[in-house]
Specification:
Layout lengths: L24 E4 L3 E4 L3 H14 L6 H13 L8 H11 L8 H13 L3 H15 L7 H13 L4 H16 L1
Antiparallel strand pairs: 1-2
Helix pairs in contact: 1-2, 1-3, 1-4, 1-5, 2-5, 4-6, 5-7
Length: 170
């Protein structure tokens, strides 16, 4: 009788291919590997980053995000459970030291969107930033970073901020 060796087993079939972790995703040093984001995930990530811009995600801001998610065409078809899973996935990256890098990743998919869609995402982020009616210095820096990353024209950004200030004045 012939002995079978694990290395030369002709009946084992082909070895499974290793999954290429780099395909369809991105690795950011210090943050880890992220799969490519969908438009929904990207927008939700921007909204959570806006909520975390002051150093902490408040319940008022989370409530505002969920109200927006029901109204926004991009997120309205996303079940609440999926939003909760995305929030849990993003939570470790919403710390102040990692926030700008996470925002870079979250805006990546939105950068290829139309100018109107980018402006809409920016307005929604501003809505979250103004939810607690106080705009801190770190939140102002975040707004500038978001304008740059979403490639929003300066004039458009100023108009958006003016609208949000007027909206939240009363």
């Amino acid at each position: 009788m012939a002995r079978r060796h694990k290395d030369t087993d002709i009946f084992a079939g082909p070895k499974p291919k290793k999954r290429d972790l780099w395909k369809g995703g991105i690795h950011i040093p210090g943050l880890g590997w992220f799969p490519r984001m969908s438009m929904q995930k990207s927008l939700y990530g921007v909204l959570l980053a806006a909520a975390a811009a002051d150093g902490d995600v408040h319940n008022l801001e989370l409530g505002e995000i969920h109200v927006l998610a029901e109204r926004i065409k991009t997120l309205s078809s996303t079940p609440r459970m999926k939003l909760g899973k995305m929030q849990a996935q993003f939570k470790p990256h919403l710390q102040p030291k990692k926030l700008l890098e996470f925002t870079d990743l979250a805006t990546r998919r939105l950068r290829s969107a139309s100018e109107d869609r980018r402006a809409s995402a920016f307005m929604h982020a501003l809505d979250i930033l103004f939810a607690d009616r106080v705009l801190t210095d770190t939140e102002r820096d975040f707004v500038k970073h978001l304008v740059h990353k979403l490639r929003i024209k300066d004039k458009t950004a100023e108009q958006c901020v003016d609208v949000m200030l007027t909206k939240n004045r009363h």
